[in-house]
Design goal:
Elements (H helix, E strand, L loop, with lengths): L7 H7 L16 H10 L10 H9 L6 H14 L32 H15 L4 H8 L3 H9 L6
Helix pairs in contact: 2-4, 3-5, 5-6, 6-7
């Protein structure tokens, strides 16, 4: 509008409701839902992702948004062995900084609780084992972080 490429009167007619779309780093719990959806849009064999791989993606520090996550998913699908699940070692994070996510070996279905626990452990490691910093990074209460870190893994 300031550059004269968009009409001012049209802008004010369209500006009825402001919609704020939070960044993916603010919506990291969406990652386990986004990864399979993004992978399904690609021309590669369908693959499952281990809870450790998803937790690593959740805890990774990223500069981009869903487009960057899509690139990570595609690179990982291209470079991973053609059989089995996508493991942490198969992730090709590009500019995202990998973080080790503590989780049990994946022997069965991934639960949201397991993913949240692994993401909390990854963020805790990223924050140099500082509970307050971890809670701020995950935008949750310190008690929630403590509960997630102390909670035993689900029985498989």
């Amino acid at each position: 509008m300031h550059e004269g490429r968009f009409r001012e009167d049209l802008y004010f007619r369209l500006q009825v409701v402001d919609i704020r779309v939070p960044s993916l780093s603010e919506r990291f719990l969406d990652i386990p839902l986004l990864v399979p959806a993004l992978a399904a849009q690609m021309p590669y064999e369908p693959r499952e992702w281990t809870s450790e791989a998803l937790a690593t993606l959740m805890a990774a520090e990223r500069r981009g948004n869903v487009r960057e996550l899509r690139n990570v998913v595609e690179r990982s699908l291209i470079h991973a062995p053609p059989t089995g699940k996508i493991e942490v070692g198969d992730l090709k994070l590009g500019n995202a900084r990998p973080q080790a996510a503590a989780a049990e070996p994946d022997n069965g279905p991934t639960t949201l609780d397991d993913i949240m626990r692994a993401a909390a452990a990854g963020a805790y490691a990223l924050c140099n084992e500082n509970l307050s910093a971890t809670a701020r990074r995950l935008e949750v209460d310190v008690k929630t972080v403590r509960r997630l870190l102390e909670k035993p893994p689900a029985k498989k």
